[in-house]
Amino acid sequence: MSKLNDIVKNNAVKYGAILLVGLLLGWLVFGGSATHEHNGEPAPTEEAAVIWTCSMHPQIRMDKPGKCPLCAMDLIPLKSADGGDDTLDDDAIQMSKEAVALANIQTTVVGRQEAIKDLQLYGTIQVDERLQQSQTSHVNGRIEKLFINFTGESVKQGQLIATIYSPDLLNAQQELLEAKKLTDFQPMLLDAAKEKLKLWKMSEAQINKILSTGKVSPYVSISANTSGIVTAKNVNQGDYINQGSVLYSISNMNKLWAVFEAYEADLPFIKEGDVLSYTLQSIPGKVYQGKVSFINPIIDATSRTAKIRVEADNRDQALKPEMYATATIQAPIKGSHGQQITIPKSAVLWTGKRSVIYVKQPNTSTPAFKMREIVLGPSLGDNYVVTSGLEDGEEIVTRGVFTVDSSAQLEGKPSMMNNDKPTPTAHGEEGHVMFTVSGNCEMCKARIEKAAKSVAGVSSATWSPKDKMLHLNFDKSKTNQQQVSKAIAAAGHDTELDKAADKAYDALPSCCLYSRDLAKSTQPMNHDNHAKHDQPSTSTAKPLGKNKQQGHAMLPVKGNCGLCKERIETAAKSVPGVTTANWDVNAKMLHLNFDPAKTDQKKISKVIAAAGHDTALDKASDKTYNSLHGCCQYER
Question: Which terminus has fewer CB within 10 Å in the chain: N or C?
Answer without folding.
Answer: N
